[in-house]
Amino acid sequence: MFSHCAIDLKELALQISTDPEHKFDLALSLDDLDTAHSILSSSVFSTTTTTTTTTTTTTSEEITALAQLKWKALGDRALSLWKFDLAKECFIQAGDISSLLLIVLSIGDREGVSKVVQHASKSSYPHRATKKHSSSLTLHNS
Questions:
Q1: 73/51 Cα distance (integer angstroms)
Q2: CA distance 73 to 127
Q3: What separation in angstroms does the CA of 86 have from each of 15, 25, 38, 60, 61?
Q4: Domain count, the chain
Q5: How far apart are alpha carbons 138 and 132 in whole angstroms?
Q6: Strands (E), the chain
Q7: Domain of 42?
Q8: Residue 124 — pLDDT band, cuts 50, 70, 90?
Q9: Is 35 inside a domain boundary?
Q10: Which residues contact 142 (CB under 8 A, 6 or more apart)?
Q11: pTM of the prediction?
Q12: Rounded to the nearest 5 degrees, what angle is found at the Cα of 137, between the Cα atoms of 134 and 141?
């Protein structure tokens, strides 16, 4: 009974909260992935401008890092609930090449593997992604 009451309170808090970060955390804890995705897509986390509040100053780099963490958390939760398309989108937004590569390899998405390897070769991952995982590509092609 206590657990059900806690869930009801979280759902109520999600409805009345105005803080995007708090709403995201509540939605994620309730497995309301659509709401969490919507918050990330349309909130301050998706911007790169400097935000100033009365007590702290948040730089664009901090917002970007926070957004990446939020996208990664959502992707991890989506993956644990077998929502591969959402997980892929989240890992792309988070710039999490390793998790993205894991997904496309596990579902046998050859085109996806090629795209991830191409993207990784253009980013800071060139040695790990193209050399290590190209051998995985040949294993799946046989």
A1: 23
A2: 26
A3: 23, 17, 12, 25, 25
A4: 2
A5: 11
A6: 51-52, 57-58
A7: 1-82
A8: low
A9: yes
A10: none
A11: 0.72
A12: 150
